[in-house]
Design a protein that fits this description.
21% of the residues lie in helices and 21% in strands. By secondary structure, it is of the alpha/beta class.
């Protein structure tokens, strides 16, 4: 009934990163407590942005405040003594981060200044937003070492799995695989849907009944391998995997290993992997030429783009278009 999940599993080892370091702290740490530029959003890039927030300074003062996608229910992004009312529900994912940024800009409350995004979304926004790339990530599929899914697949096989092809996943109540997507609003979710040739509307409508985004009633958080068992599959950022394996960020891999796609193994500095993507910081278009946004984000000589070593340490490859401000919402 299932030709992929009963195939012999090829030999492959656990991936290990070549970078090392202590686990990055969540949310802004050190002084000042509140930063000029506060941002929320993507789980994928929260670690590298936390790392950058420790080294990006203007006149010796840290200016980036990056708040994790998960943690306490609420975050306070600005000093209540000077900018009251900036306690908000913690946004989880690229979509939620963009929404929170847009809401703040529309309210004119100064609570948020940028958002993190692991996918490009140029849908109309008011006020206008600019997606500024700063690094390159790649995404593979994650399974367990004793999984019924082979460690090497063609992209066409992955697409068949995520289309719930009965030759790959079974039929009706006999689906042999738990085919996972991350929580709604995740940039990795939208990127993986696009790569697999499926749409969010069809996923929500149940067109692909083998796909799940919850386990035991809880949303599936992206890049958390602890959701996996021997009959499940999920997308996983290679940068996240490498940073977790090197203990640069908290290790949530569980038993997860990454699969090979079209004969290309997921490796360090993943710009050569076939399924790759730019990752972004989203800023108000009106602020492209205004400091500190212009100083920190915009242009190839921006403070973020000068930190290639930090970007590499978190498993991402350098982006040849770092700081580009041409991708703007209508």
């Amino acid at each position: 009934m299932r030709k992929i999940v009963v195939a012999a599993i090829g030999a492959a080892g656990l991936l290990t990163g070549t970078v090392c370091g202590s686990v990055a702290s969540a949310d802004p740490s050190g002084t000042p407590t509140y930063r000029q530029l506060a941002g929320v959003g993507s789980d994928t890039t929260q670690g590298v942005m936390n790392g950058l927030s420790q080294v990006v300074t203007i006149n010796g003062v840290k200016v980036l405040g990056s708040y994790d996608a998960v943690g306490s229910a609420n975050v306070t992004t600005k000093d209540p003594a000077t900018t009251p009312g900036c306690t908000l529900a913690r946004p989880n994912g690229s979509g939620a981060g963009r929404t929170a940024l847009t809401n703040s800009l529309q309210a004119g409350n100064g609570c948020l200044d940028f958002s993190r995004s692991s996918s490009l979304n140029l849908a109309a926004a008011t006020p206008g937003l600019t997606y500024v790339p700063f690094a390159v990530d790649a995404v593979s599929y994650a399974i367990t070492p004793t999984s019924s899914v082979p460690r090497k697949l063609a992209l066409t096989d992955l697409k068949a799995i995520y289309h719930c092809d009965p030759n790959y996943v079974g039929t009706g109540p006999n689906f042999g695989l738990n085919v996972y997507l991350p929580q709604a609003g995740s940039g990795t979710r939208s990127f993986w849907e696009s790569t697999m040739g499926i749409t969010e509307a069809d996923v929500v409508a149940g067109v692909y009944p083998c796909i799940k985004d919850t386990k035991n009633g809880a949303p599936v958080e992206e890049h958390d391998g602890r959701v996996l068992d021997d009959n499940s599959i999920a997308p996983f950022s290679i940068a996240q995997y490498l940073a977790q394996s090197s203990q640069t960020i908290a290790d949530l891999r569980g038993r997860a290993i990454l699969g090979t796609i079209d004969g290309v193994s997921p490796t360090t500095l993943n710009s050569g992997f076939g399924v790759k993507r730019d990752v972004y910081n989203v800023i108000p278009t009106s602020k492209i030429g205004t400091a500190p946004w212009s100083t920190v984000f915009a242009g190839p000589n921006s403070l973020i783009c000068q930190q290639t070593n930090v970007i590499n340490t978190y498993g991402f490859a350098a982006n040849a278009h770092c700081g580009d401000t041409s991708q703007q919402t209508p």
